[in-house]
Structures are given as C-alpha cells and as structure tokens.
Amino acid sequence: MIAVEDVTVTRGDLPVLEGVSLSVSEGEFVGVVGPNGAGKTTLLQTINGVLTPDAGTVTVGGLNVHEESARAVSRRVATVPQEATVGFEFSVADIVEMGRTPYASRFGSPEYLTDHRYVQRALDRTDTAQFADRSIREVSGGERQRVLLARALAQDAPTLVLDEPTASLDVNHQVRTLSLVADLVAEGKTAIAAIHDLDLAARFCDRLLLLSDGSLVARGSPETVLDSEYLDAAFETTTAVGIDPVTGTPSVTAMDDSCAREGRVHVVGSGAIGARVLSRLHQGGFDLTAGPLPRGDLALETARGRDVETIAVRPFEALEPATERRLDSFVDEAAVTVVADPPLDPSGAILDATTTANTLVVVDPESVVSPMDDEDTAQYDRLRERGVVTDTKSVLETVVTATAGQEVSSDD
Ligand SMILES: Nc1ncnc2c1ncn2[C@@H]1O[C@H](COP(=O)(O)OP(=O)(O)OP(=O)(O)O)[C@@H](O)[C@H]1O
C-alpha cells in the first residue's frame, strides 16, 4: 500500500507539489492524469524515493521510502521511468537482469543472476524475449519502453510506479501493456501510473487522480474524475466526455473552441469503428444522420441510443431503390460525409452515393478491423483519393476543420 501524506516538493525555487495526500491500496491500479507540468513525474519520483519532499511523508508497505536504503526501497518499489538513456552496450537481457540487483548478495553470491525464472518471465510477459540478445541501443523507443517494464517486472517488487508507460507504444502495445499491469494488480500488486491518454486511463485504472498545478483537484472512479467541469479547468480547454461504445468506459475529446459546430454530418460506418466515429461526432455536438446500417449492428445501436436519424437495412442485401434515394438525400444535405468501415454492399450503391458528397472524410482502413479483401482495398483506395483521410482518434478534429473550411468558402 502507498500512503502519501501532506507532501510538498520544491524544484528549483518553485513549489511543484503542495500539500498532496493520497493512498493506493494493495491490489489497486491508480492512474495519475493531468496537464503537462502538473507535477505527475515529481509525484511519482517522490513515491519511489528519488525525490525527497520538503514536507510530508511517503510510506510504501509501511516503510518510509525517504528513510530507508535504496536497496530496501527497490525491493518494495519497481519503477518504469518516463525516459531512460542507457549509455553502455548492454543487451536487452542484461538490462532486464538488472531488475534482480536488489536481491544480489553483497559478497558476491551470484544466485540472483542465475535465477533466470524472473527474467525469462518478465521478457515473455512484455513481448521482449524476441530481441533479448540485441543491444539496448538497437531497439526502437517503444521496444525500449517495454524492456524497462520487463526490468521492473524482474524486480518482482509488490509496488509498481510507472511514468507514462505507454507514451511511445503503438496502439496494440499500449493496450497490452496496460492490461498486463491490470493483470499484475489482479495478482496482488499495487500500481500507480501517470497516463496522458485519458481514455486508456479510464479503461484500465480502478481509480484516477487528477493533478493540476501541483494539487489533486479530483479523485475517484474514472466516471467521477473524467468530468468536463474538472477537465476543462485542469487542461484549460473545452472537453466533451462520452462513453466509448466498444469498451463502455469514459472517452474524452478535446474541442477546438474556434470552430463552430455547424452543418450536418452523415456517417456511413458500421461495427465498432462506425460506432466510435458516431460517438465522437455526437460528443462533439454535430447534428448527425447515419446509414445504411444492418440491423443488429453496434453502430446502429449507438446511433439510435443518441437519437440519430438512421437508415436501417437487412444485412448483406442490395439496397432498395427507396433506401438509395434516402441515402442520396442524407449525403446531399450533409456538409460532410464520413466513411468508416462501411457495411457490406453487394450493389455498390453506398460508394456511388458518396461520389456526390460535399466533403468526403475517409477513416483510414488501418484502423478498420473487419477483414479486407482485394476489392475492399481497391474501393478504399478510390475513396482515399477523393476524400480527406483521417483515423478514428482524430475524426472529430478533421470534421470540425472540414466544416469550418466550408463556412469560410460559403462566406466568400
Ligand atoms: N529538475 C527540475 N528543476 C526545476 N524544475 C523542474 C525540474 N523538473 C521539473 N520541474 C518543473 O516542475 C513542474 C512539474 O514537472 P513534472 O515533470 O513533475 O510534470 P508532469 O506533470 O510530469 O509533466 P509532463 O506531463 O509534461 O510529463 C514543471 O513546472 C517543471 O518545469
């Protein structure tokens, strides 16, 4: 268990943390969120004993981390730092093995080195075993981050402190890394992590702490902390918070205040991707229409749950002429038409309809999860040539820019 009591930390001449108190229970995964410079790294480095507070105490498992030896603290707390430059030609396996150092006997017993179980398990669980023999200088930034996580796992301390553990990871490894931490916590470890991606923090953490300007301004469940009122004040922006239709956890979108949300948007997108796109645009305050969408589709449910006017069709069948006309009129009336993983359409009518779109936005097939055959790829290539290409994460910003652009040109 971690207990931080009334901690104040000054760096340079400036107070960076002021009177911060918090606790993390055994078997709990707590995320620290907040804007750049809020003091997240400072807080984590005070918890792992690297920084000594000017006032207040930090105990981990009942041990005051600022009064004990570094070796004793290392047996209690393993850290994954934000950045680590490794100056020597160590192999990845060497680095992970360094996690065993706190268990080394002072007088040379090499047992900790020969006990490879922890090292091998750490390499396996972090998906780094494949490049264990390579020099640490010859792996990518994201791979290095996973190696540092492996070193922390090899350390086998009951508490994990992670500073931006997913910052340079691809989407797959972001999710794998945080679910690994969640698994370790389910196995009994305690974890505290600074996480910039609010959606990922909400998805994996049991509880969140919102740090702003050196103070904790909100704490509690992700649903409690990811509240626009708190977020807007902390991040000095306007945010829209919704529920991710796929994960069922809060999803935060930062808005660009300078762009008015005007003009209707039509979404042709099915499944999880279509649902995400609809949810984001709805969060962003757009007037939406959607379809055609097959009955039972997640995107259809998402649209209906948000009172979006939708064209529902029977799966796998060619569109009826009346449906085609309705689709054409939705596309004509929309300032922007977004195509994101469109449903199967044997007649090709959906793609035909998009040719008259005022502005076409295409969600990159890289983020499309349904299987693509050669014909799908060719169709996506044709769409990409005609439209503005984006991804699910940036779709709101892209559509905001596209609609704002239209306003400028219509005023001219
Ligand atoms: N070594 C230092 N000397 C003086 N000031 C520092 C030092 N390190 C950090 N600071 C300042 O302390 C404040 C908090 O920094 P910290 O790194 O803890 O923030 P953070 O929330 O982790 O930010 P980010 O999200 O950008 O990583 C910042 O204003 C920063 O400029």
Shape descriptor reads elongated
Round the mean pLDDT to the nearest integer and report it: 87
- Residues in helix, %: 25-40%
Radius of gyration: 25 Å
Q: Cα distance, first to last residue?
A: 63 Å
Quantity of strands, as a count: 18
Main beta sheet: strand number and arrangement? Answer: 6 strands, mixed
Strand order of the largest sheet: 6-7-8-3-9-10
Uncertain residue segments: 407-412
Oligomer: single chain
Enzyme class: translocase
InterPro entries: AAA+_ATPase (IPR003593), ABC_transporter-like_ATP-bd (IPR003439), ABC_transporter-like_CS (IPR017871), P-loop_NTPase (IPR027417)
Protein name: Cobalamin import ATP-binding protein BtuD
EC number: 7.6.2.8
Commentary on this structure:
- The strands form 4 sheets. The chain has a 6-stranded mixed beta sheet, sandwiched between helices. A 6-stranded parallel beta sheet has the order 15-14-13-16-17-18, sandwiched between helices. A 4-stranded antiparallel beta sheet has the order 2-1-4-5, with helices on one face.
- It is an alpha/beta fold.
- It is elongated and about 80 Å long.
- Helix 11 links the parallel strand 13 (264-269) and strand 14.
- It has helices at residues 40-47, 70-76, 92-97, 111-114, 117-125, 141-155, 171-186, 198-204, 222-225, 228-235, 271-283, 298-305, 321-333, 349-354, 374-386, 395-411, and strands at residues 2-11, 14-24, 29-33, 55-60, 63-64, 77-80, 159-163, 190-194, 207-212, 215-220, 238-243, 250-255, 264-269, 287-294, 309-313, 336-340, 360-363, 388-390.
- The chain has 16 helices and 18 strands.
- Helix 5 (117-125) runs antiparallel to helix 6 and helix 11 (271-283) runs parallel beside helix 12 (298-305).
- It binds adenosine-5'-triphosphate (ATP).
- The site of adenosine-5'-triphosphate has 11 residues, from helix 1.
